[in-house]
Amino acid sequence: MKTLLTSALFVATASVALAEMSDEQQVLNAINNVGYYADQGDWDQVAAQFHPEGAVLDYTSYANASAGTSADLPTLLPADIVAAWQTVLPGYDRTHHLMGTESVQIDGDTATTTANIYATHILENEGEDTWVFIGDYQHELAKTDAGWKITFMRANLRAQLGNENLPALATARVAAGNN
Questions:
Q1: If you count DSSP H runs as helices and E runs as strands, how many of each does the chain have, helices first?
Q2: Alpha-carbon gap, residue 37 to 43, rounded angstroms
Q3: Where are the alpha helices (DSSP H) in 41-154?
Q4: What is the pTM of this model?
Q5: What is the pLDDT of residues 111-158, one digit of tens each?
Q6: Contact status, residue 34 vs residue 55, Cβ threshold 8 Å
Q7: If pLDDT is split at 50, 70 and 90, which confidence band does 20 have?
Q8: 3-state secondary structure at position 20
């Protein structure tokens, strides 16, 4: 009887651990999918990572971002987030958002994350073709019927490499319809 009870406790504990691991992987997928799908230009999938009622973007550490730089950070609907990013990201020839060293904390139906970011942006021009954003992202997510969705995203710029004028050039390229 003791062996059966111990086995049942082990299975129950393992099931809880697997469920938490599954939630952790789902959280990581949501935050990683934003950059991955943005790099692919799959804006519907980018929007799908955000909570349908909206999310707050905080890019105040990088004043030249296309969204999330005002003193009053509003909640943006997923379509508004995508529309803001589409004013600059399609202007690059290529982008590559690489996140790593990720930390996830889950508390019931909410999660918080921190992840290092190394985002490479390439645009052939008269000057240097590459700009790299180095820093970290902080996210807050809520568990919904459709899975884990981002409700808050903060980019913390730590350093920049290369041509810091590239975001302005990419934005101008999009505005001119040359992307």
A1: 4, 6
A2: 7
A3: 43-48, 78-85
A4: 0.84
A5: 999 999 999 999 999 999 999 999 999 999 999 999 999 999 999 999
A6: no
A7: low
A8: helix
